[in-house]
């Protein structure tokens, strides 16, 4: 009887550990046919524990194409999965499997913008870097049961200077419903940019949800 009890307790302990371990494995949240490209950690729900953001990518062989100049390209789209760390397990906070284009898109005369994901001040930053042409960033915050777009930042090569160094800047705060535009009007003899600032109120009926964004390439910020 004692031996049976020991075996039973051992079974329960092993099974419980296996379940906890499974819940702590980020791969358990990856759908079949996807792989993890990058894992980013940071506190997104302000509980003092680092959460996990996964940049994922589909592996459909039908999405491989052959380019005349660049050879074989993987055009599978990329997505994002966000997991809240609950100490003993992970909780799925958000899943959007195909909101990003592949890293092998056609950039025309220049290479396609490079996607980067980071966590800063409790916010999720999704950035696109386009070298000397500029960059832009979407700022999301965990609100209720989704991640909502609360900010947008961009820098673009100025029309005033064409050396790829001086940039105009745009900043949008969707919470305060204000937009700031900084345009370079001249550059001093010491190479310092002289900006003119424009403030504008914007119409925001509701905050965009990360879970509902179908394609970041289609987001139009010029309407604000």
UniProtKB/TrEMBL annotation:
It comes from the Bacteria. Residues 1-18 form the signal peptide. Keywords: Signal. The keyword Signal applies. This is VCBS repeat-containing protein. It comes from Pedobacter puniceum.
